[in-house]
UniProtKB/TrEMBL annotation:
CDD domains: AdoMet_MTases
InterPro entries per UniProt: KsgA/Erm, SAM-dependent_MTases_sf
Pfam assignment, any one: RrnaAD
Gene3D superfamilies to which the protein is assigned, alphabetical: Vaccinia Virus protein VP39
SUPFAM superfamilies: S-adenosyl-L-methionine-dependent methyltransferases
One GO term of the biological process aspect: methylation
Gene Ontology molecular function: methyltransferase activity; RNA binding
Keywords noted in UniProt: Methyltransferase, RNA-binding, S-adenosyl-L-methionine, Transferase
Keyword RNA-binding appears in the UniProt entry: yes
Protein's name according to its UniProt entry: Phospholipid N-methyltransferase
Length: 201
């Protein structure tokens, strides 16, 4: 390759990197600008996503729902593990996050839904869900909406289904106990801030 072509190739790579960086910084800006609905200052770390998904066996799951898709960090973990024949519905109230996730996940079996999580039943066409994976900021959500999300999620799950939640406060356990018979808990320091994973059934 001549010097000119090398320079052009390098500048192409550089532009791609700038684009990636801008994409990530735009996502963070969206996160910070809407703290009352996003409830977080960073997205979930890969270690936290792995911890959350270690409580699942997505192979064989037919219908999976994610609540609060955000930057798609958990979505990516789910997509990497789910069967090609299964379907993933991702609820997210931010239009910008939805537009970004639609580009990240163009596959036909991933549906990005720009609606609030309590409306889950409107999109299921009577089907039951195997796993609901949530990173919703429950500490910031009004009580009546919290209760609607959790009771509608419980109804949506099949009998052996699980609702799995990432959260930063141990006290939220009481909220999940109101809606689910069993709630177990694990913890990871490998996230900023350190986080709990609540597994509800
Ligand atoms: C803490 S962020 C998590 C983002 C990403 N999944 C992660 O783990 O880093 C919570 C996300 O939930 C979304 N959200 C908040 N309330 C919601 C609701 N009622 N329905 C759907 N999404 C909601 C926010 O816009 C935000 O993107």
């Amino acid at each position: 390759m001549g010097e000119d072509s090398k320079d052009r190739a390098k500048s192409g790579i550089f532009k791609e990197r700038i684009k990636d960086y801008m994409g990530k910084s735009d996502l963070l800006l969206e996160l910070y600008s809407n703290l009352s609905t996003t409830g977080a200052v960073t997205f979930s770390s890969k270690a936290l996503v792995n911890k959350m998904l270690s409580h699942t066996n997505l192979q064989g799951a037919k219908l999976i729902v994610e609540l609060g898709g955000g930057d798609g960090s958990i979505t990516q973990g789910i997509v990497d593990r789910m069967d090609p024949g299964s379907e993933l519905l991702v609820f997210e109230i931010s239009k910008s996050f939805c537009e970004s996730m639609e580009k990240m996940f163009p596959q036909q079996n991933v549906r990005i839904i720009n609606d609030s999580a309590e409306n889950i039943a409107d999109y299921l066409e009577g089907r039951k869900v195997d796993y609901i994976l949530s990173s919703l900021p429950f500490s910031f959500i009004p009580p009546e909406v919290k209760d609607a999300i959790l009771s509608n999620s419980k109804i949506a799950l099949n009998q052996s289904g699980y609702f799995i939640q990432i959260c930063y406060s141990y006290l939220l356990k009481n909220l999940f106990k109101k809606h689910f018979d069993k709630v177990s808990l694990s913890f990871t320091l490998k996230n900023l801030p350190p986080a709990f994973v609540m597994v509800c059934s």
